[in-house]
Design goal:
- There is one protein chain.
- With 128 residues, this protein is of the alpha+beta class.
- It is 12% helix and 20% strand.
- The chain has two helices and eight strands; from the N terminus they run βββαββαβββ.
- It has helices at residues 47-52, 78-86, and strands at 2-4, 13-14, 20-21, 59-62, 68-70, 90-93, 100-103, 108-111.
- The strands form two sheets. It has a six-stranded antiparallel β-sheet with strand order 1-8-7-6-4-5. The protein has a two-stranded antiparallel ribbon with strand order 2-3.
- The radius of gyration is 14 Å and the shape is globular.
- The protein starts with a strand and ends in a 17-residue tail after the last strand.
């Protein structure tokens, strides 16, 4: 498993004691919450945007329950809203060619071994 510091905004990752540090200290302490090990073959889009008529940019899947939400660059940030509503910690990108995961609590991005499948997704409504 490879860990990366927080997104390019510049914040650092935290180690298992919660101490902020460089990438060599980056650890996700929530890997035990990963239940979804097989990605769905296809999704219709962000579940919340589809329900409420919103538009998304990029799709993320919750690795605890499989909820598909939109990224923080989308107007409604449903993946992060799902984390706040449920305390589910880890998401994974569903975008083609991306295999990274993100832990909201530990603020660390990483590649998680043992996740299989690829997901067919519709084009982003914000890019059309």
């Amino acid at each position: 498993m490879q860990f990366y510091p927080r997104s390019p905004r510049g914040a650092c990752a935290r180690n298992e004691q919660g101490v902020r540090g460089d990438v060599s200290d980056a650890v996700c302490t929530h890997l035990g919450e990963v239940v979804v090990r097989e990605l769905p073959s296809e999704v219709g889009g962000c579940a919340d945007c589809l329900r409420h008529g919103g538009k998304w940019l990029h799709l993320r899947i919750c690795l605890t329950c499989g909820h598909v939400g939109c990224c923080d660059d989308s107007p409604n940030r449903h993946a992060t809203a799902h984390h706040h509503a449920t305390s589910h910690s880890i998401i994974r990108s569903l975008e083609p060619g991306e295999d990274w995961s993100w832990c909201y609590v530990d603020e660390v991005a990483f590649r998680l071994d043992g996740i299989t499948g690829t997901t067919r997704i519709p084009p982003s409504p914000l890019l059309q």
